[in-house]
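Incident log, support desk, overnight shift.

02:14 A customer reports that sequence design results differ from what the structure should imply. Their input is reproduced verbatim below. On-call engineer (initials T.W.) acknowledged and began investigating.
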């Protein structure tokens, strides 16, 4: 039995411990598996997850959204690239979170309040603005703009374009590889500077309500030339016709573009009886008396509520024409003639108009070389007019006597809540007393608004 056991122990009974050779082999295998770059302990994704990944990766060729469950739709939208072609995403994706990513990844500052609180609207408005700012006539393909129209026409309500590039002539000795690196890199020449014609675009935007334009070149550096900051007569013709056809337009601003009398009259002819225009801003231009007379005619053939002619060259004759229209007008609530040359002749004419006008609430006559006689007439306005709430006479020469006359007119006035008399030489005491009355009116108006809040109509 012992011999048999010994014999069996040598041949049949397996060892309880691995041999040194097998242990070394196992260690080598384990070490190889850990170092294998193809080895992964991640669980294989669910089939649903794999399908969603496939949809995201192939979205440009096969956009699928309408057949997804809500929870799956959210995952796809959160993963979609913001660089997808607009032809794919524009009319398919309405999700605001997606367009928010598109905006924040492209622009550092995103003032969504300026775009009706909509990220999608903001993206298309700013994208279209950027295309227009970079457009170079005779070089840029017009299809870059035309192809955007069917994609953005339902979302664009406001355009603010503060640059229009003219045709350029590139110096062959210093020719740049990229013509779109404009500004100081472009060689502007004294050639025709007609700009991009907005006519086709504006008339194709059915919801356009605001149009803010400045014909100039930003960051032109040492290549500054006067003709780079000028709207040509042909530009003005094209723009006037387009604005006339844009019946949804409510706000039109054409500033810092050297708009003179001829261009103003051209614009006015096309704005007469415009069905919806309520605000016109032609500030910082070259408008003189003839242009002012044309605008006066517009006042009585439109629904304008806000008119800004700040920083032009309007003298007392132009102001008299505006005053004549103002006396008969029943829609205008704000008039800005700051920094013109109306002097006392124009100031007195406007004052007489305000003795009968019952709609104007705000008037700015700062920096117009006004003196005591204008102040004397406005003392009557303050005593009789119950509509004006804001007057700006800053940077004039009203003098101490003029200040006392204004103070006398304010004694029984309960409507005026803003009165700017800085640098008018009326004297500190008079200015203090006037401000006390205005402050009391403002407090009374505030308390009245708290006691009788405006009703909201559904």
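02:41 Re-run completed on a clean worker. Output:
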């Amino acid at each position: 039995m012992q011999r048999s056991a010994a014999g069996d122990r040598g041949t049949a009974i397996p060892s309880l411990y691995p041999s040194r050779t097998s242990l070394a082999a196992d260690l080598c295998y384990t070490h190889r598996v850990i170092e294998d770059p193809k080895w992964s302990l991640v669980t294989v994704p669910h089939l649903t997850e794999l399908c969603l990944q496939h949809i995201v990766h192939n979205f440009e060729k096969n956009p699928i959204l309408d057949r997804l469950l809500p929870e799956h739709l959210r995952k796809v939208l959160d993963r979609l690239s913001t660089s997808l072609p607009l032809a794919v995403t524009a009319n398919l994706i309405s999700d605001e979170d997606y367009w928010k990513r598109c905006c924040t990844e492209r622009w550092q500052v995103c003032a969504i309040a300026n775009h009706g609180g909509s990220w999608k609207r903001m993206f298309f408005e700013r994208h279209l603005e950027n295309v227009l700012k970079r457009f170079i006539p005779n070089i840029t393909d017009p299809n870059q703009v035309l192809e955007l129209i069917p994609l953005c026409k339902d979302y664009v309500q406001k355009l603010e374009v503060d640059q229009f590039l003219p045709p350029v002539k590139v110096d062959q000795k210093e020719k740049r590889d990229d013509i779109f690196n404009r500004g100081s890199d472009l060689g502007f020449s004294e050639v025709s500077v007609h700009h991009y014609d907005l006519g086709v675009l504006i008339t194709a935007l059915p919801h356009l309500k605001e149009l803010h334009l400045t014909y100039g070149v930003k960051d032109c550096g040492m290549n500054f030339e006067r003709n780079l900051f000028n709207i040509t007569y042909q530009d003005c013709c094209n723009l006037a016709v387009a604005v006339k056809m844009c019946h949804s337009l409510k706000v039109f601003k054409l500033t810092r573009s050297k708009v003179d009398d001829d261009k103003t009259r051209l614009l006015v002819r096309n704005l007469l009886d415009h069905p919806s225009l309520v605000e016109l801003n032609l500030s910082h231009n070259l408008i003189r008396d003839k242009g002012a007379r044309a605008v006066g005619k517009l006042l009585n053939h439109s629904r304008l509520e806000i008119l800004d002619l700040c920083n032009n060259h309007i003298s007392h004759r132009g102001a008299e024409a505006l005053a004549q229209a103002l006396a008969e007008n029943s829609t205008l609530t704000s008039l800005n003639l700051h920094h013109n040359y109306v002097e006392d002749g124009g100031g007195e004419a406007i004052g007489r108009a305000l003795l009968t006008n019952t709609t104007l609430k705000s008037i700015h006559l700062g920096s117009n070389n006004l003196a005591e006689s204008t102040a004397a007439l406005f003392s009557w306005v303050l005593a009789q007019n119950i509509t004006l709430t804001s007057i700006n006479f800053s940077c004039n020469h009203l003098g101490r006597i003029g200040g006392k006359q204004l103070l006398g007119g304010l004694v029984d006035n309960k409507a005026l809540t803003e009165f700017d008399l800085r640098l008018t030489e009326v004297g500190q005491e008079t200015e203090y007393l006037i401000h006390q009355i205005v402050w009391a009116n403002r407090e009374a108006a505030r308390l009245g608004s708290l006691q009788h809040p405006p009703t909201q109509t559904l």
